[in-house]
């Protein structure tokens, strides 16, 4: 009942309105509170999501920090796999960077929106970033240490390889085997050269170890001291090996010098013994070829000795040098040197003695051989000189004289031979040779044979000169007749040309022919004088010479007359061709102008004034060309008056040109008249048109 009594009964409209307002206000307040509650719940959910993600990321970072902080790089076992695993780990860490970026975005949004947990969100983000940066730092440090561990392992490996190789090569470099002979030493040096090549080939590996060591030290590797110790150990071993190699090389070079000297010394002594055997013979030759062969052989031996002398000198100098550089082998070297010197001096003495004896034998055999050869040559030359017959033509006469001169040249060339034989014989006489009487007799005989041969040559030479003169006259006469026969053939050509170019070409040929004819004048004159000289000298063929000369001169005069006549005809032909050309040009010009005079342009009233001016210019041009026609006409009439061979044709062309010219003047006058009439008609038409216009204007004014 009490509650009922408290219920207010709405009696009026105002009560209802107030009540309604109260209900609506409370409903709005309820909605506002509900919205606030929803927003707080959404914010709480957003915070819970953030905290969950932050906790998960923090847990993951802490877990990875443990992995990044381990010291697995200290164990060199399976280091490459560890590097690959670390690279995968780095990739995984970098892949998770997006999660912290997402948390930064979500947390930043809550802080910007003044979230009720903003302080906590900000603190969590700072902590997460600290852990993330620490993870990245540890990650980088572990990567660096893994790489350093890998480089250290590589350094140890290549260092061990180089050290093993150096220890192996030290055994070779420290060898004391220097060989027992030259071949053995050369084999050892060849092997040592290969050893040096191997040494140079490994320089790069030594440098590589030093480069890796310097790089590790520059990177402040934790094992820097160990690395430097290893590097020093290798460099000391390498320097020691190079020093041993240098010492070994010097010892082998010294052994090579000594063994080379011993071999060269033995070869030289053997060669000296061979030459000594050759110089021990008593054969000095039985004739000149034998003596000369022995001398050539001895000269070759002398050249060999000269070459050997240089070698002996070099060997002695080499022995002195080796004694200084190899004191432990002085006795052996000196012994070889003395042996070489003694054998050499004995050989030189024998060679000089044999050369003197061969020269004495050669002088006597040379004189006897040269005397026999000259005697045989004199007999042969006498036979050759007296066997020649007189020539029947110029080449034969020239060949005969040339051969005779060759005989003279050969005789002159043998002059020194005669002198040499005389000198050789005189030298034998001066030396009181046992065969002096025989030598003296041979010298007298040889001088007489020489004088007789020279007298025979002079006699035959005079006869050959007379034959040459006659054959020259016959040849020149024949050549002149042959030449004139060719020129007569040229003058038989009656072609006078069909055009100016052809006529000018023919005139050019005729002028050249005339020049050739004139050029031969001196030859004909010289031939005439030569024939006259032969006749005056009472040559044995004088009648024949005179007959040939007179016939040649007569033929020459006839040829000149025919040439002059052809030149005259060609000049007339050129005049006619020029007249014909000029007539053709004038005729062509007249016919072209006739075509112009026959056109009917006057029927077209357009531009009649211009056409009349053009007609007047045309008339002036025609009148100006009257002179060309007169010139052609005058040229033709001159030729007719000169009784030109083509006078009828010239007269016909003149009349034809005059008829065409008269026709041109007539047609030109007709055209001028028609143009004048057309102009008058045009003026009349214009006047009619003017009157019509004027009448039309008057009619319009009257209306």
From TrEMBL:
It is found in: Cytoplasm, Cytoskeleton. One of its GO terms (molecular function) is actin binding. The keyword Nucleus does not apply. GO terms for cellular component: cytoplasm; cytoskeleton. It holds the Pfam family Spectrin. This is Putative spectrin alpha chain, non-erythrocytic 1 isoform X6. One of its GO terms (biological process) is actin filament capping. Residues 291-325, 397-456 form a coiled coil. Belongs to the spectrin family. The lineage of its organism: Eukaryota, Metazoa, Echinodermata, Eleutherozoa, Echinozoa. It comes from the Eukaryota. Keywords: Actin capping, Actin-binding, Coiled coil, Cytoplasm, Cytoskeleton, Phosphoprotein, Repeat. It comes from Stichopus japonicus (Sea cucumber). The keyword Coiled coil applies. Its main location: cytoplasm.
């Amino acid at each position: 009942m009490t509650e009922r009594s408290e219920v207010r009964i709405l009696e009026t409209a105002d009560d209802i309105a107030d009540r309604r307002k109260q209900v609506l206000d409370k409903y709005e307040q309820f909605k506002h509170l509900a919205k606030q509650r929803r927003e707080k719940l959404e914010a709480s959910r957003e915070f819970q999501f953030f905290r969950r993600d932050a906790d998960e990321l923090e847990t993951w970072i802490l877990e990875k920090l443990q992995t990044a902080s381990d010291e697995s790089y200290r164990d060199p076992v399976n280091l490459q796999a560890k590097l690959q695993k670390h690279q995968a780990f780095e990739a995984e860490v970098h892949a998770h960077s997006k999660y912290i970026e997402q948390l930064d975005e979500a947390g930043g949004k809550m802080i910007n929106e003044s979230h009720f947990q903003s302080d906590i969100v900000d603190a969590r983000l700072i902590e997460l970033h600290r852990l993330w940066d620490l993870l990245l730092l540890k990650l980088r440090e572990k990567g660096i240490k893994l790489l350093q561990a890998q480089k250290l392992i590589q350094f140890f490996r290549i260092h061990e390889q180089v050290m093993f190789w150096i220890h192996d090569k030290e055994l070779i470099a420290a060898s004391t085997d220097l060989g027992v002979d030259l071949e053995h030493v050369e084999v050892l040096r060849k092997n040592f050269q290969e050893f040096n090549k191997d040494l140079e080939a490994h320089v790069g590996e030594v440098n590589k170890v030093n480069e890796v060591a310097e790089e590790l030290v520059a990177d402040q590797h934790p094992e820097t001291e160990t690395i430097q110790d290893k590097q020093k150990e290798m460099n000391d071993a390498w320097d020691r090996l190079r020093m041993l190699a240098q010492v070994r090389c010097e010892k082998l070079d010294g052994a090579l010098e000594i063994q080379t000297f011993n071999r060269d010394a033995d070869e030289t002594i053997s060669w000296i013994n061979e030459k000594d055997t050759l110089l021990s013979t008593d054969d000095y030759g039985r004739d000149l070829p034998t003596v000369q062969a022995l001398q050539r052989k001895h000269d070759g031996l002398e050249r060999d000795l000269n070459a050997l002398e240089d070698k002996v000198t070099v060997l002695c100098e080499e022995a002195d040098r080796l004694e200084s550089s190899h004191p432990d082998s002085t006795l052996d070297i000196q012994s070889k040197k003395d042996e070489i010197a003694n054998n050499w001096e004995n050989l030189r003495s024998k060679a000089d003695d044999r050369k003197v004896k061969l020269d004495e034998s050669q002088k006597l055999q040379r004189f006897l051989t040269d005397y026999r050869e000259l005697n045989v040559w004199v007999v042969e030359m006498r036979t050759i000189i007296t066997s020649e017959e007189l020539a029947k033509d110029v080449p034969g006469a020239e060949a005969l004289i040339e051969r005779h001169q060759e005989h003279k040249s050969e005789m002159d060339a043998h002059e020194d031979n005669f002198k040499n034989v005389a000198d050789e014989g005189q030298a034998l006489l001066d030396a009181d040779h046992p065969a002096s009487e025989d030598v003296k007799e041979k010298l007298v005989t040889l001088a007489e044979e020489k004088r007789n041969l020279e007298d025979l040559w002079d006699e035959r030479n005079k006869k050959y000169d007379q034959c040459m003169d006659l054959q020259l006259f016959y040849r020149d006469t024949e050549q002149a007749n042959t030449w004139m026969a060719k020129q007569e053939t040229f003058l038989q050509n009656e072609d006078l040309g069909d055009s100016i170019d052809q006529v000018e070409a023919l005139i050019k040929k005729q002028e050249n022919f005339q020049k050739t004819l004139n050029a031969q004048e001196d030859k004909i004159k010289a031939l005439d004088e030569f024939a006259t000289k032969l006749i005056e000298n009472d040559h044995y063929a004088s009648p024949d010479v005179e007959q040939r000369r007179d016939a040649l001169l007569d033929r020459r005069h006839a040829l000149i007359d025919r040439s002059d006549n052809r030149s005259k005809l060609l000049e007339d032909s050129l005049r006619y061709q020029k007249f014909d050309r000029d007539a053709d040009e004038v005729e062509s010009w007249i016919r072209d102008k006739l075509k112009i005079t026959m056109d009917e342009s006057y029927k077209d009233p357009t531009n009649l004034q211009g056409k009349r001016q053009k007609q007047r210019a045309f008339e002036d041009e025609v009148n100006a060309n009257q002179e060309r026609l007169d010139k052609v006409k005058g040229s033709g009439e001159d030729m007719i008056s000169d009784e030109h061979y083509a006078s009828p044709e010239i007269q016909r062309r003149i009349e034809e040109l005059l008829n065409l010219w008269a026709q041109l003047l007539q047609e030109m006058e007709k055209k001028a008249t028609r143009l004048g009439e057309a102009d008058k008609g045009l003026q009349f038409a214009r006047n009619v048109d003017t009157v019509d216009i004027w009448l039309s204007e008057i009619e319009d004014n009257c209306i």
